[in-house]
Design a protein that fits this description.
Distance between the termini: 49 Å
Number of domains: 1
Oligomer: single chain
Strand content: 15-25%
Number of strands: 6
Strand order of the largest sheet: 5-4-1-2-3-6
Low-confidence stretches: 1-6
Helix content: 40-55%
Shape: globular
CATH superfamily: Ribonuclease H-like superfamily/Ribonuclease H
Mean pLDDT: 87
CATH class: Alpha Beta
Structural class: alpha/beta
Order of helices and strands: HEEHHEHHEHEHEH
Amino acid sequence: MAERQFRMLQAFFDDSREDGCVLILAGFAATSQQWMQFCNRWEQALTMSNPRWRTFKMSRVELGDPSQLERSEYHYRIIEEFIPGAFCIAIPLPALAKVTEEFRIEPKFRNPYYLAWLVTISLFRNFHLRNGWTQPINIFFDQQGEAKMVLEAWNIMAKQNADMKAFQTAPIFSDDEKTLPLQAADLLAWWARKNWVEHGTFNNQKWLFPWEERSPGPDYFFAEVDENGIRKHFLKTMILPN
């Protein structure tokens, strides 16, 4: 049983939003054993300097302070050492608003978090089915008000797809102060949003950070749902008015 637990994949996601522009959902995936090693080092990094950081929040980092940016890089190097997979998903908000207005989608499904989490769940299901993954996976999200919307997305996926064996359970919600991998997801989501806003796309983006890329590091997967993709999604799921 313990060996099987170590082989289990766990993915941790956080969001970062630029109002009127884009919602980013981003996170990392690794085995339980890799996350255990990561957590030990991440906790040490939080206590390494004065003042101690209770949690890592990229939004609290002063980019103009070289010491804080250096410390952020140090945290990223921990991710780089232990975590093999990174995922960034973008939902352009103007495109979502246009399509949902065009189709007169009911208000709760206009919430960009619904579509972002549905894409994430679908993404991991497809990876499991098509890429030969054999490990079960648990997906963790930062605990917040949209939890009900995530579970609705999960239920829709479960009804539409008989084969959901990739997942051991429905998505799990946790507090980022207690769940250190969610702090890593926060770091990624913040930089992914910053880069998407600057470029208006993930196309041709290979690196998100101001520090040097090193190898080996996580393999990055970027996805964004454009206007046509959003339109196809609602036609497929039939979440349309009668």
